[in-house]
Amino acid sequence: MDKNQLYRRIPKVDVLLEEDGIRKLEERYGRSCVKRVVQDELERVRILIGESVDETDVLKAVEQLPDSISKSLELLYTPNIRSVINGTGTILHTNLGRAPLNREHAERLAVIAAEYSNLEYDLQRGERGERNAHFESLLCRLTGAEAALVVNNNAAAVLLCLSTLAKSGEVIVSRGELVEIGGKFRIPDVMEQSGAVLVEVGTTNKTHLSDYEEAITEETKAILKVHTSNYQIVGFTESVAVPELKAIAKEHEIPIIEDLGSGALVDLSKYGISHEPMVQEAICGGADVVCFSGDKLLGGPQAGIIVGRKCYINKMKKAPLTRALRVDKFTTAALEMTLEEYLSEERAMQRIPVLKMISEMPDTVKQRAQKLKSQLEQQKLPAQIVLEACESQIGGGALPLEKISSTAVAIRSEICSASEMEKRMRALPTPIIGRMINGIWAMDMRTIEEEQIPYIVGSIQDMLNSCRI
Ligand SMILES: *Cc1c(COP(=O)(O)O)cnc(C)c1O
After folding, report:
1. For residue 349, is pLDDT > 80?
2. Interior CA angle at 436 toward 430 and 437, to 5°?
3. Of 196-200, 247-251, 291-295, 463-467, which range is least confident?
4. Is 90 exceeded by the pLDDT of residue 184?
5. Is 349 close to ligand 1, i.e. is its CB under 6 Å away?
6. Which residues carry this modification: N6-(pyridoxal phosphate)lysine (predicted)?
7. Would you say the CB of residue 221 lies under 6 angstroms from ligand 1?
8. What's this model's pTM, rounded to 2 decimal places?
9. CATH code for the part of the protein at 103-351
């Protein structure tokens, strides 16, 4: 067959669109989208003819058109962002979306998303309200601060604090606290962006009160304290805490800004974890402005929470940058629901997934692992299922040295290598992201819920069956 004959084998768009199979697709996906995909697929065959010398390839492509059209459409309508099962044991996994929300909260969030809300409407007065009003009093109650403001994330919060309170002035920071958080967030760069001049004091390992004192000039607009959340300097070290700085800050009438990073609202040392600086402590210790993340240890939506003295927060509320960094209705709703749980610590520990995972007893995790193991064994799979003691991590740049005892379910099979297994589990409709333990693919059960077990069992069964053929 010559090329012209091959071109004539390509069906016309209108003819294809009339076919039963394609009509069915039209009902499902809509006419204009199907038409566009049909055109694209026909174009693909035309290009193939132009490039190809092998007529069987072309005829095969023509024959498979309905199939490739259907596949193309399915791919177009498959959400790119979807839920995954976190078997890594890293509780705040930034790549996996950090903090998962309570399901009940998520359901209420869906209603807010689908309907109108009083986001910026004062229902009592019947006039324009503030979106900040939904959580400001809760934040004040929980942290002891006078006022609060929430922006897009903590990086934005730090930028807003510096830009509002210290633009064109100097900000003193210890050299031991010039942190890089990752994702291009470095304190010196944020400082530059804010229009404030960074004045470094002390050394990497030691900074004294006198270092701060000597650096204060007429131009000093603030002292910034940064929690070194993702690393620790140990050994011959010294830093100056906020209460010690308070006197000199007061004397010169300059605010102390504290970036806590994670900022816990509960004392994690009660649950066998190292003590992470709490927001209440920072306020009580004399910080004038404290900022922290919404989706780290707080366990809520992505947000940057700023609490502190009314005079400073009010100034920030009026800054034009605040409008550019404001949170949307989903964040507003999710944050209010998350904070509400903290009114009672016991409730927070149970109902905020991050806190629940952090504090869950190793034995409870092990029982869940045992449950998955026995359900897998009932399937008589060509694999060996082993429980492995392992260590979970908090992640998200919080408590980097913390290891939490946990149990993983490891799967070893003669017919499927660990890397093949990893790849196949990642390709599932709801991917299962595991971890390698001694070269074996495994799932840390601390970050997996009981309700996810049936899906995991089914997926592993399918995977091993498809490896068998
Ligand atoms: C994580 C972190 C930030 C950035 O917070 P995001 O909410 O991720 O923007 C800033 N400062 C410190 C100290 C942090 O640990």
Report:
1. yes
2. 135
3. 463-467
4. no
5. no
6. 296
7. no
8. 0.93
9. 3.40.640.10
